[in-house]
Amino acid sequence: MLDIMMPGMDGFQVLERLKDHPQWCRIPVIMVTALNEREHRLRGLELGADDYLTKPVDRHELYARLKTLLRSKKLFDSLEESFEKLNQLQKQKDALVHLIVHDLKNPISGILGHLQLMGMKIGKDGQEEKLRHYQEQAEKSANYLLQLVTDILDVAQLEEGKFPLHLEHFFMDQVLDELIESLEGIMNTMNKKILFQERIHHQVYLDRHAVKRVFQNLLSNALSFTPRGKEVFLTMQKVEDRLKIRIQDQGPGIPREYHEKIFNQFERAELKKKGIHTGHGLGLAFCKLAVEAMKGRIYVDPQTELKKGSIFVVELPLELEEVKDD
Description:
Layout: E1 2-3, H1 11-20, E2 30-33, H2 38-46, E3 51-54, H3 59-121, H4 128-159, E4 167-171, H5 172-182, H6 184-190, E5 193-198, E6 203-207, H7 208-225, E7 231-239, E8 242-248, H8 268-273, H9 283-293, E9 297-300, E10 311-317
Parallel strand pairs: 1-2, 2-3, 5-7
Antiparallel strand pairs: 4-6, 7-8, 8-10, 9-10
Helix pairs in contact: 3-4, 4-9, 5-7, 7-9
């Protein structure tokens, strides 16, 4: 209980200090005063008072109000404690998932190593073609699984701001050419093409590996959603001190209300229920976090017309400044 009329510091000043202090701000406060003016009651409530009584105070009314406030405080404390426990459990769950994913990497790498050895040891006994096919398919599946695990780990690192960037000079169009060449087998099988319609030969200073993974995800998705016999269009422009790269597929497109949600890994399951496909694994989540780590921007062109494909736009700085540890 806090009387407004006090010598020296008045009740309003004491209340303000109480509510500004992190340790005391949750303590319930009833203002008590002989003043019956509306402006004083409003001021006390605005400063955080929980209730207001005027003198002379009725003891039964005071007792009832105190009981109500103490009950509310007990419920709030219980809720805060439950929230803290839930927060700790979530951290433990995240740590466990992180540990399991790390543990998955070693056996996957072992599978890949043995499959590669099998590919080198295949003999010429008439079964070579069949064995090689099995080996290639198994290796392809293991590589895909390894990529999923790597995406999970990298997304976690990016979210925590712990993803190391290894900056180097390289030409962006050369990286895109390398990716197109690496996808030729898939394009031939699916009867699809990537047309590099507009390009510039400009050097950048970024993380080459991260850039390559971003565009590998985007180009693979674009090919996946583009119908057989159709093309994916790629353009590259310099806009002031940034590169702007657009990848356009000829798939079903993405409704505008989902343009931002597709980059959020936690929305993936809900989007799938609604028939919105975002590619495999955490690819788009990784793309967004990696591009933003390099001070860039990735988005779906809002002018994209539904049922006429999607246009993904990546804007990256020409040079990223080195971040030095203190």
